[in-house]
Amino acid sequence: MRRLALAAVLLLGACSAGPAPSEVVPRSAAAPQPADASTVSAAPSSAAGPPPSCDATASLRPGALPQAGQMPDGSTMAKIAQRGRLIAGVDQNSYLMGFRNSFTGEIEGFDVDVARQIAKAVFGDEKKVQFKVVTAAERIPMLQSGAVDVVVRTMTITCQRLESVDFSQVYYQAGQRVLVRRNSGIAGVEGLADKRVCVASGSTSLGNVVTRAKTTVSVPNWTDCLVMLQQGQTDAISTDDTILAGLAAQDPYTEVVGSRFTDESYGVGIPKGQEDLVRFVNGVLERMRTDGTWRGIYGRWLTPLGPAPTPPVARYRD
User: Fold this and answer.
1) pLDDT tens digit string along 239-265?
2) pTM for the full model?
3) Which of 28, 231, 289, 313 has the fewest CB atoms within 10 Å of its CB?
């Protein structure tokens, strides 16, 4: 009996150790934000005055492409050939455009295949390319420092960027839209006025949305935005439809809404002053457009965006 009484006392003590019904159990700590996340109120600008104006998408006319493995002496392409590999800046966080395959460890996507076509034109072998992962904010500095030969990373051609780097002709025409959680009630960019929106630093998307949203959060990578949306730290993500399609494919509880409210013309970024490489890359893109390679790459990666459109028409200023 004494043992039973002792057990009863212990059981009573265990039951009384928890909080009383009137006590409030503290909520778990808030989910941490991605590294380098920051709230911005205006798009950063490197110029004190208004943005420059130009015919941004008019590039340099290509000549006849030299045979692979026979680059002209003294050319930028010959220097790349002598090194034995093309060095291309790409993304690894944008599913469909530039991402790391979790099974193979290889970087894949539409942009990656475009870079491989440039390598193939130089060497006759698309595998002779070294990929360097760069964030949106690192694209121009990497080109200026000579750390990469080209950048193929959903890079919109703008007059302001043309002051720092050169571009190929347009190889893909995208447009900015909005990604939200399903049943959010947000139908497009017009619904962001009282919302918290995530964008990647160094992207044109930042300037396009910062005045349309109540709060804009800037992070290094688009996958950081997806995590913040999933954790309820932001209400929406706004960027190019190519990138949003990749994010939506990774989370069935999200959807892309609204129509395009900008035109984003992607070009291959090239260091300033390397006109021979600009013309060479334009020749590669011209060939891709006419021989079906462009459509083949689209079919491999971008069918979530719909049937393959007509490749962008080249525009030249000379």
Assistant:
1) 999 999 999 999 999 999 999 999 999
2) 0.86
3) 28
Question: Closest Cα to residue 169, out of 301, 292, 55?
Answer: 55
Token pair belonging to 286: 């011209």
SS3 assignment for 165-221: EEEEEEEEEECEEEEEECCCCCCCHHHHCCCEEEEECCCHHHHHHCCCCCEEEEECC
C-alpha distances in angstroms, 229 versus 238, 245, 246, 274? 11, 15, 15, 41
83-107 pLDDT, tens per residue? 999 999 999 999 999 999 999 999 9
Residues paired with residue 217 on neighbouring β-strands, in sequence order: 39, 198
pLDDT at 36: 74
Burial of 256 (0-12, 13-18, 19+ CB in 10 A): middle
The answer to whether 31 and 233 have CB atoms below 8 angstroms apart is yes
- pLDDT at position 184: 97
The answer to whether 222 and 249 are in contact (CB under 8 A) is no
- Inter-helix orientation angle 275-291/293-301, to 10°: 80
